[in-house]
Amino acid sequence: MAASRVQFGNGQNSAGGSYNVVLPAGTGNGNLLVVCVGGFDPSYGNFVDLPNVADNQGNQYTPVADAELGNDRLTIFYVPGVKGGTQTLTVYQAFPSTCVAIEYTGLTNQVDVVASPNTTTDPVAVTTWADSTMVTSGSGVIVGFAVAISLVAAAFAAGAGYTLVVEQDDTVNGTSSAAFERLNAASQTAYSVNGTVGSATRIDSIAVAFK
């Protein structure tokens, strides 16, 4: 059975604190749910805690990738077997953040490999970026999450073989975030989520392969 994306929902809070992310339709019982959260602290303070993700169905969200990169924090959570039904996620991050929740079917819902966090490193500004390379052990789906610092309406575009799921902007604090995917990635293959933005800036990114 081929892996496929069922749906996604996204949201943000430019002031920091709690906000909701609603999936447009009920989830399929036992499917994989992947949640990407990007927190940005414009004051360059320290992130003390992981963002918190919960929902109305009582699913447990496990962090699988997490990186603090300067004033940016990127985290990917997953639910290996989501409960079927209407899902409203509540996300809490003390600092401004964005969130994307993506449902997939056709997988065993296991974590395959986690890429090392990647940043273009201030003051280097780029229009082309690539995540750290990872080698899969099974076929499945790769999910990448990237944040463009000091760039609103970044015009993220996915590299060859990848699809942009959604881009969203924090116009208050001047950042853009984007989620990417590669469906039916092959086993025993090296992959690096990559793409471009419309103007040169710093790009932070993380990625996880699921099988």
Describe this structure in words.
This protein is mostly beta strands and 211 residues long. The chain has one domain (4-210). The chain is built from no helices and 18 strands. It has strands spanning 4-13, 17-22, 32-40, 52-55, 62-69, 72-79, 88-93, 97-105, 111-114, 118-119, 126-130, 134-135, 140-149, 157-158, 163-170, 175-185, 190-191, 194-210. The strands form 4 sheets. Strands 9, 10, 11, 13, 14, 15, 16 and 18 form an 8-stranded antiparallel sheet that branches. The chain has a 5-stranded antiparallel sheet with strand order 1-8-3-6-5, with no helix packed on it. It is globular, with a radius of gyration of 16 Å. The N and C termini lie close together (12 Å).
Question: Which helices and strands appear, and what pairs or packs with what?
Answer:
Layout lengths: L3 E10 L3 E6 L9 E9 L11 E4 L6 E8 L2 E8 L8 E6 L3 E9 L5 E4 L3 E2 L6 E5 L3 E2 L4 E10 L7 E2 L4 E8 L4 E11 L4 E2 L2 E17 L1
Antiparallel strand pairs: 1-8, 2-7, 3-6, 3-8, 4-7, 5-6, 9-18, 10-18, 11-18, 12-17, 13-16, 13-18, 14-18, 15-16
Give the key terms.
5-stranded antiparallel β-sheet; 18 strands; 211 residues; 8-stranded antiparallel β-sheet; mainly beta; 58% strand; globular; 0% helix
